[in-house]
Amino acid sequence: MDVPDPGPRWGAVEEDAESTAAAYRERGWTAVAGHPGQVNPVADAARVDVLLPESEFEAALEAVDEAAIDGVDVYAGAADGVAYRLVVATDEAAEVALCIPTYIGDEDLASLRAAAAANGALTVRVRPLDDRDHVAIAIDDPAVFFDAPES
Question: What span, in angstroms and rounded, lies between the C-alpha atoms of 136 and 72?
Fold first, then answer.
């Protein structure tokens, strides 16, 4: 399997996830910033699979255990043929935030977009290496992910 290249700006996107989570923590929220080992678009399932290290996955799973994710913001950027998205999933009442950075090569973006449009939603699926469990973040309006302003 070819591992997608996260491109030259990936470190900055991970730093954005970390600083966004820190801002939520300063407000007293439980916030988890992901540092994916791998991000894979799964176009036929209208899904983006995000592989997190074991400890980060466990923290994300624990954070959403009693939460009901009711908001998703997407921050976007692009460079050198890679679309970067920072997905911030929140539960206002439980004061929980998951900050999950993603990257998708431009060659995969169109097919993922078409599948998400046909499905009416896009799922960001966060999982550990052994795939024993997952956290699913539903983006009910896929345009939020794909039409986010490029910066």
Answer: 12
Sheet containing 96-105, strands listed edge to edge, beginning at the edge strand earlier in sequence: 30-33, 96-105, 82-91, 71-79
Confidence of residue 3 (pLDDT cuts 50, 70, 90): low
Q: What is the DSSP string of the chain?
A: -PPPP--TTHHHHHHHHHHHHHHHHHTT-EEEE---SEEEEEGGGTEEEEE--HHHHHHHHHHHSS----EEEEEEEEETTEEEEEEEEEETTTTEEEEEEEEEEHHHHHHHHHHHHHHT-EEEEEE-TT-S--EEEEESSTHHHHSSPP-
Is it the case that residue 4 has pLDDT exceeding 80?
A: no
Q: Kindly tell me the sign of the dihedral angle through the C-alpha atoms of 116, 119, 122, 126.
A: negative
